[in-house]
Amino acid sequence: RVLASMDLLGDITPSVKIQASVSYPLIRAAIQCMTVHAVPELKPKAVSLISSLYTSYPDLRENILDDTFGTLIPYLGVGRKCRRDVPLPSEAGTMESVNVMTALLVQLVQGCAIMPLNSSPEAIRSAYAACISTADDFWARCMGCIGSARAMRMESDADFVCVMVGMVQDLLQISCSKYWPSASTILIRLVTNLNSCMGLLSPDPVVRQFCVDVLGKILSAVHKDSARLATSADRLDDVVSEVGNENISEAAVELVLKILQSSDASSAASARLFLCLRTLCEDLGKFEASSQNLDDLHDHASELLAAANDTLSSYAATSCENTLSQEDVTLVMKVTVHQQFLTAAPAMLSWLLEIIDSKKQ
């Protein structure tokens, strides 16, 4: 009954307005359900419900994050035995088990993706900024958990460092899943937040070491993906050739959207929406950087939004069977992910070199 009730609440929350007096107890109950290890089916339902409440009630987002961190952290596991017991949809009908914090974060960020009703450049940026601010707020709280524990001379910071390292591993693992395009964006936002007084610029050596470890893991993944894409260039050309777009990054995004048509999962619809919104904002940014005419920018923004909505409508209205192998799907996803990391890689490398330079310690 509890599982059925949570499913029902998650379905009706976006369309039925709940009063604050009801929503607060509901939020706390859902967060408490994420701490129950004895009933494995309960956690994913609770994560989905919290994500639905977070998306539907922007005014409550700060409270949801505060309550989540205040309640959930003691139940995440200790040391390197952090639990990975929340299944997320993965490729070929399989499930990928991740930490509950990872599952919550990707669904919160992806759930915030809503196409703007206004075609102005400001409206488009604001729509995507909701996803970015969620990732930033989440990571800022994570970094604060390490710093505050150290300041109070507690031992729990070492455990939470392991939790965060585990989250990074989870995100790297699912970033090449067609269902979770938000994972790579979340990692990029973590990298951005590391270059701050709570990260690489922190006076605490434990915090700085954590930042170095994370940057090393991400750069290592970028290097491995570069090598794999280089050796698979011919195969990749064959896979994306059917799209008819000479820009391989754009062709890969189009192909991912097409691949998502083969799935009826709700996470597929969420992935399509997030991917379209992110691509819309990136295309607008590229045009803005190359144009000096404000009128041209507004006209182009309107055209981009109309095209994005048409794309969403066409892919949502039809379905098709995915004819690509699992290896080809992963290869295409790596293209969409790799381009983001490749842009950030020089800055990450320079930060690493700076912090390990003994003259600058």
Brief sketch in words of this structure:
With 361 residues, the chain is mainly alpha-helical. It has 14 helices and two strands; from the N terminus they run ααααββαααααααααα.
Can you describe what's shown?
GO terms for molecular function: chromatin binding; cohesin loader activity. The chain is mainly alpha-helical. Among the domains are: 1-75, no CATH class; 231-338, no CATH class. Helix content is 71%, strand content 2%. It has helices at 2-12, 20-33, 42-56, 61-72, 100-111, 121-151, 156-174, 182-194, 205-231, 233-240, 248-260, 266-290, 294-317, 326-356, and strands at 86-89, 95-98. It has a two-stranded antiparallel ribbon with strand order 1-2. The radius of gyration is 21 Å and the shape is globular.
